[in-house]
Amino acid sequence: MLKGISPLLSPELLAVMCRMGHGEELVIADGHFPGHQFNDTVIRADGLSVPDLLDAILPLFELDAYDPAPVITMEAVEGDSLDPKVEDSYAAAIARHSELNPKISRLERFVFYDRVEKAHAVVATGDVNKYANIILKKGVTPV
Predict the structure, then answer these.
(1) Is position 32 annotated as part of the catalytic site?
(2) What does the DSSP assignment read for the chain?
(3) Do the domain assignments include residue 9?
(4) For residue range 69-99, what is the model confidence (pLDDT) as tens digits?
(5) Which of 9, 14, 111, 131 is most buried, judged by most C-beta within 10 A?
(6) Residues 22, 32, 36, 120: which is the catalytic one?
(7) What's the structural domain count of the chain?
């Protein structure tokens, strides 16, 4: 156990985050997302919600200040709708932990999937909310 690091962060997730370079992306996926279909590196975080993981990850993870969209979620498919409480909870976690505090962008479903294929890793949570997937782009840690 390490002091000052959330117990929600597994050793595997900490190691993956440490290995990431600036510009690389980490996907935090809901329990419905087929992570293994799109990426070879999937870290299990069963039983955890995406907002709780954001609160654990973001104190250690600098968002990319050079990208106008370092935080991305998935758009709802036609005929479906997003629950605004999901994105609001993400925005609140980002505001708590990021001086950058970027607006959350959205991508069409299949464009989002293409992005997941190129991501450094996927964290598979137990979150049951629809469209609860989020991509974080890592930035350069300030001096």
Answers:
(1) no
(2) --TTS-TTS-HHHHHHHHHPPTT-EEEEE-TT--HHHH-S-EEEETT--HHHHHHHHTTT--B-TTSS-SEEEEPPPTT----HHHHHHHHHHHHHH-SS-PPPEEE-HHHHHHHHHHSSEEEEE---STT--EEEEB-PPP-
(3) no
(4) 999 999 999 999 999 999 999 999 999 999 9
(5) 131
(6) 22
(7) 1
